[in-house]
Amino acid sequence: MAAWNVFDANVRLGHSGIHGELALETGDLLEEMDRLGIQRALVSHFASEEYDAEEGNNLLASECDERLTPAWAALPDPLFIQKLVTRDPQAVHLSFGVKKHNFSWAPWCSGELYEYLEENSVLALVAREDIEWDSLARLLGDYSRLQVLLLETGYRAERYLFPLFKQHPNLYIDTSTYVAHRQLESFVDKFGPMRLLFGSRLPLYTAGAALGVLATARISDDARLAIAGGNLRRLLGRKSQ
Amino acid sequence: MRSPIPVFDCHGHLGTHPDFPAWKQSAEEMLQVMDLLNVEVLAITSTRACNNNCPRGNAEVAEALQKYPHRFRGYITVNPQPPGEALRELERWSHFHHPPLIKLHPECHQYPVNGEHYRPVWDYANQTHAVVLVHTWDSDPKCGPLLLGPIAHAFPQAKIILGHSGVTWRGYEQSFAVAAEASNTFLDITGSQSHRTIIERAVARFGAHRVLFGSDMPYLEAAMVLGRLLSARISDEDKEKILRTNFASLLEEGHD
C-alpha cells in the first residue's frame, strides 16, 4: 500500500463522547495509519461535531500532525467565517444536520460561506446523512464552482448519484461506504477514476476494508493511484494555485 | 490482495435487487471474482426468493448448483407465508445438501423469526441438524439478534448462523449476548459496516471457531470483508478458521 501514497479523505480525530474507545488521539491514529500503509489523512475532529465547532477547530490546530490535514468545521455566521479565513483552510466540513451544527444548506443561510469557499478553492466535505439529495442538487447547481466531497454515500445511492455526476463536474465521493459488489470498478468504467477519493472512516471502521476494495478493483494502476490519493492531493492543491 | 487460503464463504446470493443497480452479478461473473480473491466455495441464497418468490428463486439456485457443483452450495430459502409453502420447499430441494442449508429472511418476508409460521421450519431444522442462516439486524422486531437466543435453546440441533451479526455495533453486542448463551449459534461477519476491532472482540470472547467469513456477494464487495479480516489483529490460525475451516466443518457435520 505504501507505494500508493494513500491520502485518506475521511478520518476523524480525538475524543468522542459517542464512540468511546474506538476514538483515537493523534499518536494512536498515526500508528493505525502506519499499520495499514496510509501516509496522510484529511481529518475532522469529533469535538466539532459533538460539542462546539470552534472548540473542535482549536483542537484540530493543536493536535494535527504534519501528516494530518484539517477539515475545519465551518458555520455560516459572518464572525465564524472571519475566524475561518485566518486558518487559511484547504478543506472544511459542513455539518448541516440538526443534531450537529443545525443550519440550513440553502443560500439564504449559507450563501456567504459558499462564496468564500468558491473564491478560494476550498474543498467542502458534506456527509450524505446531513443533506437531502434534492438539496444537494440545488447546492451544486447554485454554486457550480464549489468542490463538494460527499462522504459516506452508502452503496445503494447510484440512482441519485449518477445523474448528479453527469450534471455536476465538481462533485466527488469517498469510498468508505461505496462497497457494493464490483461497484468501484463499475463506477470507473462509467465516469473514470478522477472523482473517487479513498476514504476509510477511521477510527470507526477499519481501513482494511476500503483498502481491500481498492486493492482488488480491476482498474488500471494509474486509476488506483488517483483514487488512493492523487485526486485528493489535486483538489487540495488548487488552494495554492 | 488475495486470501492466502481457499475460502469457504457462508453468505452469498444469486440475482439482482430492487433498490440499486446490480453489477456483474451472474454466476459466471461471481466466479471470476471468487477466483480473483481465492474463494473456493460460496453458499448462495436466491435474492428472488428473499424478495419475491421462493419456488422460482430456489429453482435458480438448483440450476447454479447443477452447473457449478464444486463452487456453490445452496441455501433453501423459505417464506413462512403462506403457511405450508416452507415445508414444501424444504422437501422439494432436500437433495441440495446433507445437512440442509436453510435461509430465513424475516425482514424481507415481513414476518418475525419467532412467529408461529416459522415453527415447522425450526422443527425441520432441528430434526435434520440443518445449518440455518438468518438475516439479523440490530433490535429489529422481526429479526433482531436477541430473538434467536430462545430459538437456539429450543432447537439445539440446528446450527444457527446470525447473518451479519446484527450489522451495527449495537447489533454485534446483541449477537454476542446470544452467542454467549447458545453454543449452536455462529457469528457471520458479512456486512456493510466495517467496525474497527469487532472481529478481534468476537475472537477474544468466543474463540475463532464461532466466527464465519461471509461476503454477501453480489450485494456487497467481498474484498471489503476479506480486507477487514486479513487486517484484523488476530493470529493466522484464527484467520484460517474463519476463512475456511469453520464453515467447511458445518457443511460436513451431517456426513457419515
Provide the gyration radius of chain B in Å: 16 Å
- Structural class of chain B, by secondary structure, is alpha/beta
Average predicted local confidence, pLDDT of chain A:
96
The tally of domains of chain B stands at: 1
Q: Low-confidence spans of chain A: pLDDT under 50, at least 5 residues?
A: none
Helix content of chain B: 40-55%
Under the CATH scheme, which class of chain B? Alpha Beta
Count every beta strand of chain B, where a strand is a DSSP E run of 2 or more residues: 9
Q: What does this entry show, briefly?
A:
Chain A is an alpha/beta fold. In chain A, 44% of the residues lie in helices and 17% in strands. Chain A has a single domain (2-240), classed as Metal-dependent hydrolases (TIM Barrel, Alpha-Beta Barrel).
What does this structure look like?
The complex is a heterodimer of chains A (241) and B (256). Chain A is built from 10 helices and 9 strands. Chain A is of the alpha/beta class. Chain A has one domain (2-240): TIM Barrel (Alpha-Beta Barrel). The two termini of chain A are 29 Å apart. Chain B is α/β, with parallel strands linked by helices and 256 residues long. Chain B has a single domain (7-252), classed as TIM Barrel (Alpha-Beta Barrel). In chain B, 40% of the residues lie in helices and 16% in strands. Chain B has 10 helices and 9 strands. Chain B has helices at residues 27-37, 47-51, 54-67, 85-92, 119-128, 148-154, 169-181, 198-206, 222-230, 236-252, and strands at 7-14, 39-46, 72-74, 76-77, 101-104, 131-135, 159-163, 185-188, 211-212. In chain B, strand 4, helix 4 (85-92) and strand 5 form a beta-alpha-beta unit. The mean pLDDT of chain B is 96. The A-B interface holds A 22, 35-36, 154-159, 177, 179-184, 186, 201-213, 215-218 and B 1-2, 19-25, 29, 33, 36-37, 192-197, 216-232.
